[in-house]
Amino acid sequence: MNNSPDHRAAIQFQNVSYRLNTGYELLRNLNLEVQRGETLVLLGRSGSGKTTTLKLINRLLLQSNGEIYVDGRSIRDWDVIRLRRMIGYVIQEVGLFPHFTVARNIGVVPQIEGWPADRIQSRVQELLQLVGLEPQLASRYPRELSGGQRQRVGVARALAADPSFLLMDEPFGALDPITRAELQREFLALQRRLGKTVVFVTHDLREALLLGTRITLMEAGQLVVTLTPDEFLHSTDPMVAAYVDAFKTEISPKSLGQNDPQTK
Amino acid sequence: MNVLQFIAQNHIEVLELTAEHLWLVGASIFLAVLIGIPLGILITRWPVLKRPVLGGANIIQTIPSLALFGFLLPAPWIGARADRLAIFALTMYALLPLISGTYTGIKGVDPAVVEAGRGMGMTDRQLLWQVEFPLALGVIIAGVRVAAVISIGLATIAAAIGAGGLGEYIFRGLAMVNNQVILAGAIPAAALAILADVSLGWLEKRLKPQ
Q1: Shortest CA gap B120–chain A (Å)
Q2: B113 CA to chain A: closest CA distance, Å?
Q3: A211-225, pLDDT tens digit by residue?
Q4: C-alpha to C-alpha distance for B137 and B172, rounded to whole angstroms
Q5: ipTM for the complex?
Protein backbone atom coordinates (compact mmCIF):
# COMPACT_ATOMS: atom_id res chain seq x y z
CA MET A 1 0.00 0.00 0.00
CA ASN A 2 1.46 3.36 -0.85
CA ASN A 3 1.29 5.81 2.00
CA SER A 4 1.35 9.15 0.27
CA PRO A 5 -1.93 10.90 -0.43
CA ASP A 6 -3.43 10.81 -3.89
CA HIS A 7 -3.79 14.46 -4.77
CA ARG A 8 -6.45 13.84 -7.36
CA ALA A 9 -8.85 12.44 -4.76
CA ALA A 10 -10.90 14.97 -2.83
CA ILE A 11 -11.19 12.65 0.14
CA GLN A 12 -9.10 9.58 0.72
CA PHE A 13 -9.16 6.90 3.42
CA GLN A 14 -6.04 4.77 3.88
CA ASN A 15 -6.35 1.69 6.10
CA VAL A 16 -8.66 3.48 8.47
CA SER A 17 -9.96 1.77 11.58
CA TYR A 18 -12.11 3.16 14.33
CA ARG A 19 -12.35 1.54 17.71
CA LEU A 20 -14.45 2.52 20.70
CA ASN A 21 -12.74 2.98 24.06
CA THR A 22 -14.09 -0.43 24.97
CA GLY A 23 -11.97 -1.89 22.17
CA TYR A 24 -14.94 -2.72 19.97
CA GLU A 25 -14.06 -2.13 16.34
CA LEU A 26 -16.67 -0.14 14.43
CA LEU A 27 -14.63 0.24 11.26
CA ARG A 28 -11.93 -2.05 10.03
CA ASN A 29 -9.23 -1.28 7.51
CA LEU A 30 -11.19 1.06 5.31
CA ASN A 31 -9.77 2.23 1.98
CA LEU A 32 -11.84 4.68 0.04
CA GLU A 33 -11.49 7.51 -2.41
CA VAL A 34 -13.98 10.20 -3.20
CA GLN A 35 -13.39 12.00 -6.49
CA ARG A 36 -13.90 15.72 -6.85
CA GLY A 37 -17.45 16.60 -7.85
CA GLU A 38 -18.89 13.11 -7.44
CA THR A 39 -21.65 11.91 -5.16
CA LEU A 40 -20.38 8.87 -3.34
CA VAL A 41 -23.14 7.00 -1.57
CA LEU A 42 -22.29 4.96 1.50
CA LEU A 43 -24.91 2.24 1.50
CA GLY A 44 -25.50 -0.31 4.18
CA ARG A 45 -27.80 -1.44 6.89
CA SER A 46 -27.94 0.08 10.37
CA GLY A 47 -24.72 -0.47 12.27
CA SER A 48 -22.63 -1.09 9.17
CA GLY A 49 -20.43 1.93 9.95
CA LYS A 50 -21.66 4.41 7.34
CA THR A 51 -22.33 7.24 9.76
CA THR A 52 -19.08 6.58 11.60
CA THR A 53 -17.24 6.85 8.28
CA LEU A 54 -18.97 10.15 7.57
CA LYS A 55 -18.13 11.60 10.97
CA LEU A 56 -14.47 10.73 10.52
CA ILE A 57 -14.35 13.06 7.52
CA ASN A 58 -15.24 16.20 9.48
CA ARG A 59 -13.44 14.86 12.54
CA LEU A 60 -16.47 14.59 14.76
CA LEU A 61 -14.71 11.30 15.41
CA LEU A 62 -10.99 10.67 15.16
CA GLN A 63 -9.79 7.44 13.58
CA SER A 64 -7.83 4.99 15.72
CA ASN A 65 -5.56 3.89 12.87
CA GLY A 66 -4.80 4.89 9.33
CA GLU A 67 -4.91 8.22 7.54
CA ILE A 68 -7.66 10.33 6.08
CA TYR A 69 -6.82 13.02 3.55
CA VAL A 70 -9.06 15.90 2.63
CA ASP A 71 -7.80 17.94 -0.31
CA GLY A 72 -4.59 15.93 -0.16
CA ARG A 73 -3.87 16.92 3.40
CA SER A 74 -4.06 14.67 6.43
CA ILE A 75 -7.04 15.36 8.60
CA ARG A 76 -4.76 15.55 11.64
CA ASP A 77 -2.93 18.50 10.05
CA TRP A 78 -6.07 20.51 9.35
CA ASP A 79 -7.24 23.05 11.86
CA VAL A 80 -10.42 21.26 12.85
CA ILE A 81 -12.59 24.39 12.82
CA ARG A 82 -11.36 25.36 9.33
CA LEU A 83 -11.87 21.82 8.11
CA ARG A 84 -15.46 21.70 9.31
CA ARG A 85 -16.33 25.08 7.89
CA MET A 86 -15.35 23.99 4.40
CA ILE A 87 -17.46 20.86 4.72
CA GLY A 88 -21.24 21.30 4.70
CA TYR A 89 -22.99 18.89 7.01
CA VAL A 90 -26.60 17.78 6.69
CA ILE A 91 -28.23 15.37 9.10
CA GLN A 92 -31.81 14.25 9.64
CA GLU A 93 -34.12 17.14 10.47
CA VAL A 94 -33.23 17.22 14.17
CA GLY A 95 -30.07 19.20 13.54
CA LEU A 96 -31.70 22.61 13.06
CA PHE A 97 -31.33 25.01 15.96
CA PRO A 98 -34.82 25.21 17.46
CA HIS A 99 -34.27 28.67 18.95
CA PHE A 100 -33.05 30.22 15.69
CA THR A 101 -35.28 31.43 12.89
CA VAL A 102 -34.88 29.87 9.45
CA ALA A 103 -32.76 32.83 8.38
CA ARG A 104 -30.42 32.51 11.39
CA ASN A 105 -30.18 28.77 10.92
CA ILE A 106 -29.14 29.17 7.31
CA GLY A 107 -26.78 32.00 8.17
CA VAL A 108 -24.95 30.19 10.99
CA VAL A 109 -21.70 29.42 9.20
CA PRO A 110 -21.42 32.85 7.51
CA GLN A 111 -22.13 34.41 10.91
CA ILE A 112 -19.43 32.44 12.75
CA GLU A 113 -17.14 33.19 9.83
CA GLY A 114 -17.75 36.87 10.55
CA TRP A 115 -19.49 37.96 7.36
CA PRO A 116 -21.15 41.41 7.50
CA ALA A 117 -24.87 41.27 8.27
CA ASP A 118 -26.10 42.54 4.90
CA ARG A 119 -24.03 39.97 3.04
CA ILE A 120 -25.43 37.19 5.25
CA GLN A 121 -28.92 38.44 4.60
CA SER A 122 -28.59 38.46 0.83
CA ARG A 123 -26.90 35.04 0.94
CA VAL A 124 -29.82 33.68 2.98
CA GLN A 125 -32.30 34.98 0.41
CA GLU A 126 -30.27 33.46 -2.38
CA LEU A 127 -30.17 30.09 -0.62
CA LEU A 128 -33.88 30.07 0.18
CA GLN A 129 -34.50 30.46 -3.51
CA LEU A 130 -31.93 27.83 -4.40
CA VAL A 131 -33.60 25.18 -2.26
CA GLY A 132 -37.10 26.22 -3.28
CA LEU A 133 -38.36 27.95 -0.16
CA GLU A 134 -40.54 31.07 -0.02
CA PRO A 135 -38.61 34.16 1.15
CA GLN A 136 -41.22 34.86 3.85
CA LEU A 137 -40.29 31.61 5.61
CA ALA A 138 -37.07 33.31 6.72
CA SER A 139 -38.59 34.61 9.94
CA ARG A 140 -40.23 31.31 10.94
CA TYR A 141 -38.89 28.85 13.51
CA PRO A 142 -38.08 25.24 12.58
CA ARG A 143 -41.06 23.94 14.57
CA GLU A 144 -43.37 25.96 12.31
CA LEU A 145 -42.17 24.17 9.19
CA SER A 146 -43.10 20.88 7.59
CA GLY A 147 -40.58 18.04 7.49
CA GLY A 148 -39.73 18.72 3.86
CA GLN A 149 -39.24 22.43 4.50
CA ARG A 150 -37.01 21.70 7.48
CA GLN A 151 -34.86 19.42 5.39
CA ARG A 152 -34.54 22.10 2.70
CA VAL A 153 -33.40 24.52 5.39
CA GLY A 154 -30.85 21.90 6.46
CA VAL A 155 -29.48 21.71 2.93
CA ALA A 156 -29.45 25.50 2.58
CA ARG A 157 -27.59 25.79 5.89
CA ALA A 158 -24.95 23.33 4.75
CA LEU A 159 -24.46 25.25 1.49
CA ALA A 160 -24.34 28.67 3.12
CA ALA A 161 -20.62 29.36 3.05
CA ASP A 162 -20.27 27.62 -0.33
CA PRO A 163 -18.23 24.64 0.93
CA SER A 164 -16.61 22.37 -1.65
CA PHE A 165 -17.71 19.30 0.31
CA LEU A 166 -21.06 18.10 1.54
CA LEU A 167 -21.62 15.32 4.02
CA MET A 168 -25.20 14.12 4.11
CA ASP A 169 -26.36 11.61 6.71
CA GLU A 170 -29.72 10.12 5.70
CA PRO A 171 -30.96 13.65 5.03
CA PHE A 172 -34.26 12.51 3.54
CA GLY A 173 -34.79 9.53 5.82
CA ALA A 174 -37.52 11.01 7.98
CA LEU A 175 -39.68 12.25 5.11
CA ASP A 176 -42.77 10.75 3.53
CA PRO A 177 -42.08 8.97 0.20
CA ILE A 178 -43.53 11.73 -1.99
CA THR A 179 -41.63 14.55 -0.33
CA ARG A 180 -38.53 12.39 -0.31
CA ALA A 181 -38.78 11.79 -4.07
CA GLU A 182 -39.26 15.52 -4.59
CA LEU A 183 -36.19 16.40 -2.54
CA GLN A 184 -34.11 13.72 -4.24
CA ARG A 185 -34.94 15.20 -7.66
CA GLU A 186 -34.12 18.67 -6.44
CA PHE A 187 -30.88 17.43 -4.95
CA LEU A 188 -29.89 15.97 -8.31
CA ALA A 189 -30.65 19.20 -10.11
CA LEU A 190 -28.80 21.20 -7.49
CA GLN A 191 -25.80 18.91 -7.60
CA ARG A 192 -25.66 19.20 -11.40
CA ARG A 193 -25.42 22.96 -10.99
CA LEU A 194 -23.07 23.12 -8.01
CA GLY A 195 -20.81 20.10 -8.54
CA LYS A 196 -19.90 19.64 -4.89
CA THR A 197 -18.00 16.64 -3.64
CA VAL A 198 -20.72 14.80 -1.79
CA VAL A 199 -20.63 11.84 0.57
CA PHE A 200 -24.16 10.63 1.09
CA VAL A 201 -25.19 8.06 3.69
CA THR A 202 -28.33 5.99 3.20
CA HIS A 203 -29.70 2.50 3.67
CA ASP A 204 -32.15 2.98 0.82
CA LEU A 205 -30.94 1.25 -2.34
CA ARG A 206 -33.27 3.24 -4.60
CA GLU A 207 -31.94 6.49 -3.19
CA ALA A 208 -28.39 5.24 -3.69
CA LEU A 209 -29.05 4.24 -7.31
CA LEU A 210 -30.75 7.53 -8.05
CA LEU A 211 -28.27 9.93 -6.45
CA GLY A 212 -24.92 8.18 -6.47
CA THR A 213 -22.14 8.56 -8.99
CA ARG A 214 -20.71 5.54 -7.23
CA ILE A 215 -22.05 3.38 -4.45
CA THR A 216 -19.97 1.94 -1.65
CA LEU A 217 -21.59 -0.98 0.12
CA MET A 218 -20.61 -1.38 3.75
CA GLU A 219 -21.25 -4.31 6.02
CA ALA A 220 -20.24 -4.83 9.65
CA GLY A 221 -17.65 -2.05 9.65
CA GLN A 222 -16.00 -3.09 6.45
CA LEU A 223 -16.16 -1.87 2.91
CA VAL A 224 -17.58 -4.56 0.64
CA VAL A 225 -17.23 -2.95 -2.75
CA THR A 226 -17.51 0.36 -4.61
CA LEU A 227 -19.43 0.28 -7.88
CA THR A 228 -21.34 2.55 -10.21
CA PRO A 229 -25.13 2.27 -9.91
CA ASP A 230 -25.30 0.23 -13.10
CA GLU A 231 -22.57 -2.17 -12.01
CA PHE A 232 -24.18 -2.41 -8.61
CA LEU A 233 -27.52 -3.63 -10.00
CA HIS A 234 -25.84 -6.33 -12.05
CA SER A 235 -23.10 -7.34 -9.66
CA THR A 236 -22.60 -10.99 -8.84
CA ASP A 237 -20.94 -10.20 -5.52
CA PRO A 238 -23.04 -12.17 -3.02
CA MET A 239 -23.41 -9.31 -0.56
CA VAL A 240 -24.37 -6.83 -3.25
CA ALA A 241 -26.79 -9.29 -4.78
CA ALA A 242 -28.31 -9.95 -1.37
CA TYR A 243 -28.82 -6.24 -0.81
CA VAL A 244 -30.39 -5.77 -4.22
CA ASP A 245 -32.59 -8.82 -3.68
CA ALA A 246 -33.84 -7.52 -0.35
CA PHE A 247 -35.14 -4.44 -2.13
CA LYS A 248 -36.59 -6.41 -5.03
CA THR A 249 -38.71 -8.46 -2.65
CA GLU A 250 -39.88 -5.31 -0.97
CA ILE A 251 -41.43 -4.00 -4.17
CA SER A 252 -42.31 -7.32 -5.80
CA PRO A 253 -45.62 -7.43 -7.70
CA LYS A 254 -46.96 -9.84 -5.10
CA SER A 255 -46.64 -7.42 -2.21
CA LEU A 256 -47.90 -4.55 -4.36
CA GLY A 257 -50.83 -6.65 -5.57
CA GLN A 258 -52.19 -6.95 -2.08
CA ASN A 259 -52.84 -3.23 -1.96
CA ASP A 260 -53.62 -2.62 -5.59
CA PRO A 261 -55.64 -5.15 -7.57
CA GLN A 262 -54.82 -3.45 -10.88
CA THR A 263 -51.26 -4.70 -10.91
CA LYS A 264 -52.36 -8.35 -10.88
CA MET B 1 -56.63 41.31 67.46
CA ASN B 2 -56.18 39.19 64.34
CA VAL B 3 -53.12 38.96 62.08
CA LEU B 4 -54.38 41.31 59.42
CA GLN B 5 -55.11 44.01 61.97
CA PHE B 6 -51.65 43.51 63.45
CA ILE B 7 -50.06 43.82 60.01
CA ALA B 8 -52.15 46.89 59.17
CA GLN B 9 -51.18 48.58 62.43
CA ASN B 10 -47.51 47.80 61.98
CA HIS B 11 -47.41 48.11 58.22
CA ILE B 12 -44.32 50.29 58.19
CA GLU B 13 -42.35 47.75 60.20
CA VAL B 14 -43.74 44.89 58.09
CA LEU B 15 -42.62 46.66 54.92
CA GLU B 16 -39.18 47.35 56.38
CA LEU B 17 -38.71 43.73 57.36
CA THR B 18 -39.98 42.58 53.95
CA ALA B 19 -37.47 44.89 52.27
CA GLU B 20 -34.68 43.48 54.46
CA HIS B 21 -35.83 40.00 53.60
CA LEU B 22 -35.79 40.77 49.90
CA TRP B 23 -32.33 42.27 50.21
CA LEU B 24 -30.96 39.12 51.89
CA VAL B 25 -32.56 36.83 49.32
CA GLY B 26 -31.94 39.03 46.29
CA ALA B 27 -28.27 39.60 47.06
CA SER B 28 -27.62 35.93 47.77
CA ILE B 29 -29.42 34.71 44.64
CA PHE B 30 -27.50 37.26 42.61
CA LEU B 31 -24.19 36.00 44.01
CA ALA B 32 -25.23 32.38 43.63
CA VAL B 33 -26.06 33.00 39.96
CA LEU B 34 -22.66 34.65 39.46
CA ILE B 35 -20.87 31.68 41.01
CA GLY B 36 -23.20 28.75 40.30
CA ILE B 37 -23.78 29.17 36.57
CA PRO B 38 -20.06 29.39 35.69
CA LEU B 39 -19.40 26.39 37.94
CA GLY B 40 -22.22 24.47 36.25
CA ILE B 41 -20.75 25.29 32.82
CA LEU B 42 -17.27 24.40 34.03
CA ILE B 43 -18.27 20.87 35.03
CA THR B 44 -19.85 20.24 31.61
CA ARG B 45 -16.42 21.03 30.11
CA TRP B 46 -14.28 19.30 32.73
CA PRO B 47 -16.11 16.14 33.76
CA VAL B 48 -13.44 15.33 36.38
CA LEU B 49 -14.61 18.36 38.36
CA LYS B 50 -18.23 17.26 38.35
CA ARG B 51 -18.05 15.05 41.44
CA PRO B 52 -16.08 17.38 43.70
CA VAL B 53 -18.14 20.45 42.72
CA LEU B 54 -21.58 18.84 42.97
CA GLY B 55 -20.46 16.86 46.02
CA GLY B 56 -19.28 20.02 47.75
CA ALA B 57 -22.51 21.86 47.01
CA ASN B 58 -24.42 18.83 48.26
CA ILE B 59 -22.52 18.73 51.53
CA ILE B 60 -23.26 22.41 52.16
CA GLN B 61 -26.91 21.60 51.64
CA THR B 62 -26.83 19.04 54.46
CA ILE B 63 -25.59 21.51 57.09
CA PRO B 64 -28.53 22.67 59.21
CA SER B 65 -29.01 26.34 58.49
CA LEU B 66 -29.15 27.47 62.11
CA ALA B 67 -25.85 25.69 62.71
CA LEU B 68 -24.26 27.29 59.63
CA PHE B 69 -25.30 30.76 60.75
CA GLY B 70 -23.79 29.98 64.14
CA PHE B 71 -20.57 28.53 62.74
CA LEU B 72 -19.97 31.60 60.64
CA LEU B 73 -20.34 34.12 63.46
CA PRO B 74 -16.66 34.00 64.46
CA ALA B 75 -15.48 34.03 60.82
CA PRO B 76 -13.38 37.09 59.90
CA TRP B 77 -15.05 39.74 57.71
CA ILE B 78 -18.06 37.53 57.01
CA GLY B 79 -19.05 37.39 60.68
CA ALA B 80 -18.51 41.11 61.19
CA ARG B 81 -21.96 42.09 59.96
CA ALA B 82 -25.09 40.01 60.41
CA ASP B 83 -26.55 40.69 56.97
CA ARG B 84 -23.22 39.92 55.31
CA LEU B 85 -23.08 36.62 57.14
CA ALA B 86 -26.67 35.79 56.22
CA ILE B 87 -26.08 36.60 52.55
CA PHE B 88 -22.98 34.44 52.56
CA ALA B 89 -24.80 31.47 54.07
CA LEU B 90 -27.84 31.84 51.80
CA THR B 91 -25.56 32.02 48.77
CA MET B 92 -23.99 28.71 49.82
CA TYR B 93 -27.40 27.08 50.02
CA ALA B 94 -28.49 28.45 46.66
CA LEU B 95 -25.44 27.05 44.86
CA LEU B 96 -26.59 23.46 44.50
CA PRO B 97 -29.81 24.13 42.54
CA LEU B 98 -27.93 26.58 40.31
CA ILE B 99 -24.94 24.37 39.59
CA SER B 100 -26.99 21.26 39.00
CA GLY B 101 -29.63 23.18 37.03
CA THR B 102 -26.96 24.61 34.71
CA TYR B 103 -25.29 21.24 34.36
CA THR B 104 -28.49 19.30 33.64
CA GLY B 105 -29.75 22.03 31.34
CA ILE B 106 -26.66 21.99 29.16
CA LYS B 107 -26.34 18.21 29.21
CA GLY B 108 -30.02 17.96 28.30
CA VAL B 109 -29.67 19.85 25.01
CA ASP B 110 -30.50 17.55 22.09
CA PRO B 111 -27.17 15.90 21.17
CA ALA B 112 -28.06 16.05 17.47
CA VAL B 113 -28.32 19.84 17.67
CA VAL B 114 -24.97 20.07 19.46
CA GLU B 115 -23.36 17.75 16.95
CA ALA B 116 -24.77 19.76 14.06
CA GLY B 117 -23.20 22.89 15.55
CA ARG B 118 -19.89 21.15 16.06
CA GLY B 119 -20.02 19.66 12.57
CA MET B 120 -20.54 23.09 11.07
CA GLY B 121 -17.36 24.31 12.68
CA MET B 122 -18.55 26.19 15.73
CA THR B 123 -15.85 26.70 18.32
CA ASP B 124 -16.61 25.46 21.81
CA ARG B 125 -17.37 29.00 22.91
CA GLN B 126 -19.74 29.63 20.00
CA LEU B 127 -21.45 26.34 20.68
CA LEU B 128 -21.87 27.23 24.35
CA TRP B 129 -23.20 30.77 23.95
CA GLN B 130 -25.18 30.39 20.74
CA VAL B 131 -26.60 26.91 21.18
CA GLU B 132 -26.19 25.18 24.52
CA PHE B 133 -26.74 28.06 26.93
CA PRO B 134 -29.84 29.53 25.24
CA LEU B 135 -31.38 26.07 24.95
CA ALA B 136 -30.57 25.29 28.59
CA LEU B 137 -31.90 28.61 29.89
CA GLY B 138 -35.33 27.24 30.80
CA VAL B 139 -33.77 24.57 33.03
CA ILE B 140 -31.31 27.07 34.51
CA ILE B 141 -34.19 29.40 35.43
CA ALA B 142 -35.88 26.41 37.07
CA GLY B 143 -32.76 26.14 39.24
CA VAL B 144 -32.96 29.85 40.11
CA ARG B 145 -36.61 29.34 41.01
CA VAL B 146 -35.86 26.48 43.41
CA ALA B 147 -32.99 28.48 44.91
CA ALA B 148 -35.17 31.56 45.38
CA VAL B 149 -37.98 29.68 47.10
CA ILE B 150 -35.53 27.87 49.42
CA SER B 151 -33.75 31.14 50.24
CA ILE B 152 -36.95 32.99 51.11
CA GLY B 153 -37.72 30.28 53.65
CA LEU B 154 -34.18 30.01 54.99
CA ALA B 155 -33.79 33.77 55.29
CA THR B 156 -36.36 33.80 58.11
CA ILE B 157 -33.77 31.94 60.22
CA ALA B 158 -31.24 34.72 59.60
CA ALA B 159 -33.15 36.77 62.16
CA ALA B 160 -31.68 34.49 64.83
CA ILE B 161 -28.29 36.11 64.28
CA GLY B 162 -29.77 39.58 63.99
CA ALA B 163 -29.74 39.90 60.20
CA GLY B 164 -33.33 41.14 60.18
CA GLY B 165 -35.98 40.16 57.69
CA LEU B 166 -39.40 38.68 58.32
CA GLY B 167 -37.89 36.11 60.67
CA GLU B 168 -37.79 38.91 63.27
CA TYR B 169 -41.54 38.56 63.76
CA ILE B 170 -41.34 34.78 63.87
CA PHE B 171 -38.67 34.75 66.57
CA ARG B 172 -40.36 37.60 68.47
CA GLY B 173 -43.69 35.77 68.31
CA LEU B 174 -42.07 32.57 69.51
CA ALA B 175 -40.56 34.41 72.49
CA MET B 176 -43.87 36.10 73.30
CA VAL B 177 -45.88 32.92 72.64
CA ASN B 178 -48.01 35.05 70.35
CA ASN B 179 -49.29 33.35 67.19
CA GLN B 180 -50.39 36.62 65.63
CA VAL B 181 -46.86 37.95 65.65
CA ILE B 182 -45.47 34.69 64.28
CA LEU B 183 -48.00 34.79 61.45
CA ALA B 184 -47.22 38.45 60.75
CA GLY B 185 -43.76 37.19 59.72
CA ALA B 186 -44.74 33.86 58.25
CA ILE B 187 -47.57 35.01 55.98
CA PRO B 188 -45.61 37.72 54.12
CA ALA B 189 -42.67 35.29 53.82
CA ALA B 190 -44.94 32.63 52.33
CA ALA B 191 -46.46 35.23 50.01
CA LEU B 192 -42.97 36.22 48.82
CA ALA B 193 -42.14 32.57 48.16
CA ILE B 194 -45.30 32.06 46.13
CA LEU B 195 -44.69 35.27 44.21
CA ALA B 196 -41.11 34.22 43.37
CA ASP B 197 -42.28 30.75 42.39
CA VAL B 198 -45.02 32.00 40.09
CA SER B 199 -43.01 34.75 38.41
CA LEU B 200 -39.92 32.62 37.84
CA GLY B 201 -42.16 29.77 36.71
CA TRP B 202 -43.64 32.09 34.11
CA LEU B 203 -40.17 33.12 32.95
CA GLU B 204 -39.05 29.49 32.80
CA LYS B 205 -41.99 28.59 30.60
CA ARG B 206 -41.31 31.49 28.27
CA LEU B 207 -37.66 30.56 27.87
CA LYS B 208 -38.16 26.87 27.34
CA PRO B 209 -37.73 26.05 23.65
CA GLN B 210 -40.73 24.34 22.10
Answers
A1: 6
A2: 5
A3: 999 999 999 999 999
A4: 41
A5: 0.83
